[in-house]
Design goal:
Layout: H1 2-16, E1 27-33, E2 48-50, E3 56-58, E4 61-63, E5 74-76, E6 88-100, E7 107-113, E8 126-132, E9 136-143, E10 149-151, E11 156-159, E12 164-172, E13 176-181, E14 184-191, E15 199-204, E16 209-223, E17 230-232, E18 244-251, E19 257-263, E20 266-281, E21 288-297, E22 302-303, E23 309-311, E24 316-323, E25 340-345, E26 349-354, E27 357-362, E28 379-386, E29 389-396, E30 407-410, E31 420-425, E32 429-440, H2 488-504, H3 506-509
Antiparallel strand pairs: 1-16, 2-5, 3-4, 4-16, 5-15, 6-12, 6-16, 7-8, 7-15, 8-9, 9-10, 9-11, 12-13, 13-14, 17-32, 18-20, 19-20, 20-31, 20-32, 21-28, 21-32, 22-23, 24-25, 24-31, 25-26, 26-27, 28-29, 29-30
Length: 524
Amino acid sequence: MKIYKKIVSLLICIILVLGLSIVASAGSAIVNLDNSSFANDELSTQDWHNANEDIIVKKGKIVFPKDSSSGTKLVWKSPTVKSAYYDKLVEGSTTFKLTKLPAGETFALAFALKTIEPEIGSASTLELQFKNKGGIHASVVSYDADANPTTISSTKRVGSVGANLNVTFTITTDDKITVSINGTSLCKNANIKHTGEGRIGFIQTDGCVAEISTVNFKSYAYDTPENVNFSEDFNDSEWNINHFTSTMVAAVDYPGCADIQEYKGHKGMLWQNGRFVYLSTKYTYSNFEFSFDVPYQQNHTVLDDEGNLVTRPMPYYYVRTGCESNEMEAINWSPSAYSKQIVLGNGNYLTVYSGSQHDGTFTKEGFNFFDEDTSNKGYSLKFVMKDGVFTGYAKWMDEKSFGDPVFTVDQSDAPTPTGFIQIIGLDYTNMMIDNVKVKNLDFDPNIVEVDFLTNKEPFPEDYKYTPMEVVYMPENNTEEAGFNFYLIPAIAAGVAVIAVGVTTLVSVIARKRRIKKAGETVDE
């Protein structure tokens, strides 16, 4: 058992050091921009567009240089998008000072920017403008589709050159804005006369020098990826490859398969002696409920009558959500910051990761699903993602309900990840999967219907396929030939290839035929 734990630890380390990628916003997506975007005297190019590349970070502050021009501007790359799920579109605060503001020039905190390099007074934008009129005066100006300006707030003196300006703002999804500076209100729920969607940025006319010391912006969005609800029990000895795909690269021992089989009194997707075997949805999901049964899982070593090793116990497997690919490269997984990986393994644990962050290792009392004497005692797992709150459940198949969750990971203040949902076994995978269900839990879900496309290959009518049948090659092509031990590796590998080929090459050669309506709603 110790060697399995070492293997698990090593593989986890390899996977987690592959790095992070940018997470796509889906479901509930609260996106934050704060001082970390200019930490260590470096401006984050992932967060900011520095148009002239002349803005720097010095002593923990964003600095607009002394020779600033109209091309000196800084724009947050993340656009804001309306959603009926939220009342707010964007809100935030920032502290900065204008160390130089020439008379007749304008410095602005601009909203609803439609381009990444806007100008002062662009059409359908909104600006909190600062002008020097014997002291710094501020007002909120809305520009219509023809770039005609309307001042929608009071104009007030808010400070002087070189003094800190503490700005707070909120823009709602019904196109209203509230702004205050140094505790003084400029406007409250003022109608901005056009959509507030777009980017936020610091822009100017010419010659303005500024130092920005704090930024705390928060945008609210909600995206619903197109996907399907489905439930698969494998009773018809086939599945809809428009719902999910399943692949096995090789077999670690003989026999090896990844196919629908009758085994140990159950019928389902049997993974036997699998190496790099997985099941993946064909659509991406953000908010979802994903569940499946494991009627059989081999937790013990199997020997033949002479004591030779036949099959090894399965040490662990993975459930992953938010995956960026449903192809084979998904096994070499590079996790995004909020995607989830659950490692289920020897010791009856569920270890949860969010990207490279270890969220905890959890067990359920009495749920000894990796113990040797429970190989034939089926169990069920359910995982729920709802607006950044990820919850896992476990039970024996003969139990009526899941009861309390085994774990809950709350990242509701971060973007809900979107991606494919997968079950993956890396080595010695011996288990059966049944009753795979996926239910979309998005607000205002984007559900589509898909045709049924079978995973079965169209074998000729006169071909009789016997699963896992081994045919030994006669020596010198004679019926009396004996068995050749040197053929074992080739035969085992060949059988694995045949078994896998039946189920995994279907996307290339399967005939499309309408057999039954797919995309049904999963039972509650």
